[in-house]
Amino acid sequence: MKIRYYIDPETGLPHIYNHDVCEVEVEEILEHPGELRPGNDNSRIAVGQTYSGRYLRVIYLRETKSNGLFIITAYELSGKPLKAYLKRRRRKIQ
Q1: 8 Å CB contact between 15 and 5
Q2: pLDDT digits over 59-92, tens only?
Q3: Are strands 68-76 and 55-63 parallel, antiparallel or unpaired?
Q4: Contacts of 45 (CB under 8 A, 6+ apart)
Q5: Which positions ≥6 away from 5 have C-beta within 8 Å?
Q6: Which residues are CB-neighbours of 39 under 8 A, at least 6 positions away?
Q7: Per-residue pLDDT tens digits for 36-55
Q8: Single pTM value for the model
Q9: Residue 44 and residue 24: Cα distance in Å, rounded?
Q10: What is the DSSP string of 17-84?
Q11: Cα-flanking dihedrals φ and ψ of residue 78, to 5°?
Q12: How many other C-beta atoms are found inside a 10 Å radius of the C-beta of residue 42?
């Protein structure tokens, strides 16, 4: 599957770098998401834990023509959003 990233026009680099997230981490979440949800405007949201232990939220679009994904952004979960995700996971497991 082909994965493309939104490029920040100011830096010329993938936008995920602004959030200290790398491509490998995004791919880990997409391969083994703990949660998949619909987002806004046909986007999808994948949430999960990387192999290094970070919890990330990845927002992306499916590209039907190329059968790929376009990554809009990804960032680390913390605070209340992280607690809510962990609580949903515990309920799902029980």
Answers
A1: yes
A2: 999 998 888 999 999 999 999 999 999 998 887 6
A3: antiparallel
A4: 35, 36, 37, 38, 39, 57, 58, 59
A5: 14, 15, 16, 23, 26, 70, 71
A6: 45, 59
A7: 999 999 999 999 999 999 99
A8: 0.91
A9: 19
A10: GGGT--HHHHHHHHHS-SEEEE-STT-EEEEEE-TTS-EEEEEEEEETTTTEEEEEEEEE--HHHHHH
A11: -155, 170
A12: 8
d(C-alpha 18, C-alpha 54), whole Å: 16
State the total domains in the chain: 1
Q: How far apart are CA 64 and CA 12, in angstroms?
A: 25
Could you count the other beta carbons within 10 Å of the beta carbon of residue 69?
21
Give residue for tokens 């046909």: 42
Contacts of 22 (CB under 8 A, 6+ apart): 16
Q: Which domain holds residue 42?
A: 3-93
Query: Which residue do the tokens 């680390």 mark?
Result: 76
**Distance between CA atoms of residues 84 and 78, nearest Å:** 10
Query: Exposure string (b/e) for 70-80, b if CB count within 10 Å is 16 or more?
Result: bbbbbbebeee
